[in-house]
Amino acid sequence: MLPRRSRRDDKRFGDVPWVAWPSVLSLDAVIVAVVWQQWLMRTFCQRGSTWGESAALAATVWLIYVADRLLDAASLNLSRPHSLRHRFYRRHARFFLALWIVVLVVDTIIVVRFLPPQLIREGLVVAVAVLVYGASVHFRRAVMTSQWDGAADLARPSLTIPKEVRVGVLFAAGVSLSAWSELMTRRNSGIDAGLEDGDWVGLVSATLAMAILFTSNCLLVAFFERRLDRAQSFASVASGVDDPHGRLARAVGSRFRTPVLAASVIAFAVLLIPLPTPFRIVVLCCAFGLIVLAKRSLRSESIPEMDSDAVRSTFDVRGVWVDVVLWLPPVVMIGWFS
């Protein structure tokens, strides 16, 4: 059900900073996905992504992120602090719902007509995993809201696997899907008899490294928006929602650098497994960038405490930088080797 607009929501929304538009339009994740897909294909398949592979991935990622943000916006409480992108999607819910349907139709046509059957079959597996993830987050929230609304003193079940970890893994799986499909097609058809075990080990290592980097990205964003998530009762690894005993909160809290830096260290460890040198350099640069952002973010908090009369829609520019850190190194490498 689409959210009802308040009188304040009907005003012209002209306070979106230019740097916020990629996030507001859900293009930030699309850029990261397409760039890393292109880099993987060039590294492990000796060719760039086809326009169909890139277009299908871009549209699919956009559909997933817009659906997630529309569902978040539908339950948004405008009387509490909230993010700029959630407010934007609440205001323009009808437009984005119509655009979502159009993009879904176009994406379906691209997938059916321009992608190989092997890639489609593997993509359906990832799609099911994404649907399970979405249901586990949004359906669970709806059930909990109806069951515990007005009873904050009741204990809520704690999270098992933080959603940031699940998003990072699923994102890496989706981005690497075309590379996996290409190598499996070559092996099954006998086109490339030169495929060795090292090729598969390298792709496994690359996918794992991406999952760690993407998870670290999500952890940092969760840290930046923890106050907003807490105000809106959105569960995250940093907000403390769904964590009645405070186990996750104590793990992140003022020492949030621990999981982020630990993840980056693991990324360095992954590099010990045989990987092409250019790919190794890109992962190193991304991991180092996340470490720098994590350490600098602990020294400053850009989200102010807001009273009841303050403007409650907030945009944190640090979220832009964590995305830039992920897509800039592979873009530079792609340009270097083109």
What can you tell me about this protein's structure?
With 338 residues, the protein is mostly helical. It has a single domain (19-149, 158-298, 318-337), classed as Farnesyl Diphosphate Synthase. It is 68% helix and 1% strand. It has 13 helices and two strands. It has helices at 21-24, 28-44, 51-74, 84-91, 93-114, 117-148, 163-189, 197-224, 226-232, 247-252, 257-270, 277-297, 318-337, and strands at residues 82-83, 313-314. It has a two-stranded parallel ribbon. α7 packs antiparallel against α8 (197-224), α8 runs parallel beside α12 (277-297) and α11 packs antiparallel against α12 (277-297). The longest helix is centred in the middle third of the chain and has 32 residues, at 117-148. Mean pLDDT is 78; it is low at 1-13, 144-159 and 302-311.
Can I get a quick summary?
With 338 residues, the protein is an all-alpha fold.
User: Uncertain segments of ≥5 residues (pLDDT<50)?
Assistant: 1-13, 144-159, 302-311
Report the CATH architecture.
Answer: Orthogonal Bundle
Question: Total number of helical segments?
Answer: 13
CATH class: Mainly Alpha
